[in-house]
Amino acid sequence: MRCDGQHHVPKSASNGGRRDRGPGSARVLSVHGLSVRYGRSVRALDGVHLDVPADGVLAVLGGNGAGKSTLLRAVSGTLKLHRGSVTAGEISFQGRRIDRLDPARIVRAGVVAVPEGRQVFARMTVEENLRAGGLGARSAAARTNARSRIHELFPVLAERAGQRAGLLSGGEQQMLAIGRALMSDPKLLLLDEPSLGLAPQLVSRIARIIREIHEQGTAVVLVEQNATMALKVADHAVVLEVGRVALAGTAADLAASDEVQRLYLGGHAESQAQAEREATDARAHRRNRSLSRWAG
Questions:
Q1: Contact at 8 Å (CB) between 250 and 286?
Q2: What is the DSSP letter of 164?
Q3: How far are the Cα atoms of 52, 102, 167, 175, 266 from residue 58, in angstroms, in the given order?
Q4: How far apart are CA 135 and CA 120, in angstroms?
Q5: Euclidean distance between the first and the last CA atom of the chain, given in angstroms as a whole number
């Protein structure tokens, strides 16, 4: 995949897609020259540079095997659980290097991941799952405030507090997985394929709730194969291809890119026109701060 400047998604050959920003734009997370291997031979990431700005949601797009989940594992410190390791580069969160920390310390620093497939504790109740997520909270008061926030975002979790998580629908389990992550009051939320396996109407709801979470002050990195949804939600986006950043820019610019159109949004005349409409909708959506709650 080439980065074509005419689509306003510039990729510098020297920085692998990293876009330098002015001093007024704070970076919550910075990934510099990150390379990751599984075992001795499988290179999953190769010199990845990217920044997560405090003023928006970052979408990470790419096909299977592009390195999207590996990126989140590196940031959350869980690579070793998958027999992976960082071989070069560094990851900094709010100016502090975290790629050498264990997962528990990364959570305490304020970075929490929601893995692909939800992975709730099926035999535990909804309330017990939320309590487990709150173990990393800074105080009892913080846990209480977080639970109130979660019940406001997802009223169904309050209604089903005593129900076993394994008996919830797929959409409700996704709510619970996100709610459990929010219990530790993270400053950065990592979402890995949150729309996977959900009905279209639930995908739209999760898109709205991701924006709501960000508007409440939590930075978000959204890994998605559903590029249409991700580019509606995000303000900024990168495309990974074979472990490298192939494209980077604003979500609106990537939605209008011929490369993204062809590979992720269709690429024929009708789908391009549709994508242009969706990009317009996405810009209007970001201006609209009156967002609905996900009731299930």
A1: no
A2: B
A3: 6, 24, 32, 20, 22
A4: 15
A5: 39
Q: How far apart, in whole angstroms, are the C-alpha atoms of residue 124 and residue 3?
A: 47
- Please give the Cα distance from 85 to 44 (Å, whole number): 10
How confident is the model at residue 62, as a pLDDT?
92
- Confidence (pTM): 0.80
Tokens of 105: 């310390």
The helix/strand/coil state of 159 is helix
Cα 103 to Cα 110, 163, 218: the distances in Å are 11, 29, 19
Query: What is the full DSSP assignment across 230-281?
Result: HHHH-SEEEEEETTEEEEEEEHHHHHH-HHHHHHHS--SHHHHHHHHHHHHH
Closest to 231 (Cα-Cα) out of 201, 190, 261: 261
CA separation for the pair 201, 219 (Å, rounded)? 24
3-state secondary structure of 29: strand
The pLDDT assigned to 269 comes to 32
262 φ/ψ angles, rounded to the nearest 5 degrees: -70, -40
Single-letter code of the amino acid located at 262: R
Residue 265: its pLDDT value, please?
Answer: 73
pLDDT < 50 stretches in the chain: 1-8, 10-24, 267-275, 278-279, 282-283, 285-296
3-state helix, strand, coil in the chain (%, to 5): 40, 25, 35
- DSSP code per residue over 81-141: GGTEEEEEEEEEETTEE-TTS-HHHHHHHTEEEE-TT----TTSBHHHHHHHHGGG-SSHH
C-beta of residue 54 within 8 angstroms of C-beta of residue 27: yes
Radius of gyration of the chain (CA): 19
